[in-house]
């Protein structure tokens, strides 16, 4: 069955088109775009006058591996949700399990640098599970530098994952901040040889930790220049904090010199990770000018009272998800810092979406609306709609065309070399994938808060994944599982 979207404001960031037109899709592909396309008996016609029609959002940084989480992201306009910062290992198992369970959105994974190191350095067998990965983050056994033999062993594992279809390499460097910089350089050389991007959570900045083996922002610039690898800087807002001016200037300089460095950001002043992460230790919080009260346990809502309680929680449940407040969104100066990261030229919107947890210990639900008591970070449900609200509707910094460049087109282009299937995404012209979002420009906004984080965004009127409706008239369709794997080309 063909679908005709009639009379919307169509935006194609690939060609720069922004005007009233019809869009006709068939068999998962856009087959016509233009005014006055003819009606036909064999097609469903939807009046989208007054709405914006554009390519669905591509999230390069989503740790959501469940139906529940993907449904929240669907209501936020996302059609492709990829876990590229951390990745999963073994990647074949990750793809197989996602396919078996069914997914509303397209999905994909990078090779997990952290899991490869944990297997070689600590004997921890990876199981392609995000919750296992969170529990490993606080284990110091894998965070040390590698011997030459160990380095060769885990590089070989990463190479095998790329050969199996991983979408590049996810590098949680900030979770092993004292590891030898030479290892990162060796990894980038491998990635360049495979023509695969890296996606890096950088180490601490020198302003935060004068003893760091390498400044986080400078390291990624230097390694990109030295190797020629395509290197993606994850959540520059959270790793830069109040030093965002210096970091963005350094990244702009390296890009102007020809280095292949891309940047992402999300519009929140708090991050989320495992409480056992190296950078949430009391001493590292102090380096950032923070204290333990800025840490909130996600599943219980407990705000850590003091250093003693933080040490206790890190020792007893290092994998417990938490929220870390690094900026105050109510403070105008801090809010400006967040806007800077989003406004940076070619900065990509990416959510760092987290799993949804319930107090009964479950991390999946096929109910919709989601049952009460779910806990996650609000960025899971609202990153893209909040970015549009802030940067288009309120600040007027982005046009709608620019918004779709940053949410759809640019993220797809990060993947072009490693994944041929990405080349028809992030665009809305003939031959493009029928991954389409139809949104109301007057009402699109986030509704999730830190205390009620599973409230879906509003304003997405229709969402099509491979031409199949997942959201219709603002309502999620619970029987829609059209998501397909996006895989790297075997190397």
TrEMBL record:
One of its GO terms (molecular function) is hydrolase activity, acting on carbon-nitrogen (but not peptide) bonds. NCBIfam families: PRK09061.1 (NF006560). This is Dihydroorotase-like cyclic amidohydrolase. It comes from Amycolatopsis echigonensis.
């Amino acid at each position: 069955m063909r679908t005709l979207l009639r009379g919307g404001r169509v935006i194609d960031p690939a060609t720069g088109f922004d005007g009233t037109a019809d869009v006709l899709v068939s068999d998962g592909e856009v087959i016509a775009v233009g005014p006055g396309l003819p009606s036909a008996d064999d097609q469903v016609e939807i009046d989208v006058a007054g709405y914006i029609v554009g390519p669905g959002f591509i999230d390069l940084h989503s740790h959501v591996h469940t139906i529940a989480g993907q449904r929240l992201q669907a209501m936020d306009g996302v059609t492709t949700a990829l876990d590229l910062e951390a990745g999963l290992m073994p990647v074949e198992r990750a793809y197989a399990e996602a396919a078996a369970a069914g997914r509303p959105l397209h999905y994909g994974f990078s090779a997990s640098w952290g899991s490869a190191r944990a297997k070689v350095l600590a004997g921890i067998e990876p199981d392609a599970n995000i919750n296992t990965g969170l529990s490993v983050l606080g284990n110091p056994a894998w965070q040390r530098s590698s011997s030459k033999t160990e380095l060769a062993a885990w590089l070989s594992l990463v190479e095998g994952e790329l050969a199996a279809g991983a979408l590049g390499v996810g590098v949680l460097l900030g979770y092993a901040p004292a590891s030898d910089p030479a290892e990162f350089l060796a990894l980038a050389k491998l990635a360049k040889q495979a023509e695969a991007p890296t996606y890096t959570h950088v180490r601490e900045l020198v302003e935060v930790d004068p003893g760091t083996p390498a400044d986080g922002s400078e390291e990624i610039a230097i390694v990109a220049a030295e190797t020629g690898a395509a290197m993606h800087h994850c959540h520059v807002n959270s790793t830069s904090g109040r030093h965002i001016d210096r970091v963005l200037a350094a990244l702009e300089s390296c890009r102007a010199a020809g280095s292949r460095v891309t940047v992402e950001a999300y519009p929140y002043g708090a991050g989320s990770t495992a409480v056992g992460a190296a950078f949430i230790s009391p001493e590292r919080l102090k380096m950032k000018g923070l204290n333990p009260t800025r840490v909130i346990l996600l599943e219980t809502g407990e705000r850590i009272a003091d250093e003693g309680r933080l040490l206790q929680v890190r020792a007893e449940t290092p994998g417990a998800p938490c929220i870390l407040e690094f900026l105050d969104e109510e403070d105008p100066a801090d809010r400006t810092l967040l806007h800077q990261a989003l406004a940076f030229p070619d900065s990509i919107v990416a959510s760092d979406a987290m799993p949804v947890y319930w107090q009964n210990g479950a991390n999946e639900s096929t109910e919709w609306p989601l049952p009460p008591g779910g806990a996650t970070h609000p960025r899971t449900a609202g990153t893209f709609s909040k970015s549009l609200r802030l940067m288009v509707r309120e600040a007027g910094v982005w046009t709608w065309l620019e918004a779709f460049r940053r949410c759809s087109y640019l993220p797809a282009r990060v993947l072009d070399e490693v994944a041929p299937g990405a080349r028809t995404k992030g665009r809305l012209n003939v031959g493009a994938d029928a991954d389409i979002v139809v949104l109301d420009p007057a009402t699109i906004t986030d509704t999730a808060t830190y205390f009620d984080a599973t409230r879906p965004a509003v304003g997405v009127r229709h969402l099509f994944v491979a031409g199949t409706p997942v959201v219709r008239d603002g309502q999620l369709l619970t029987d829609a599982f059209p998501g397909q794997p996006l895989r790297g080309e075997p190397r």
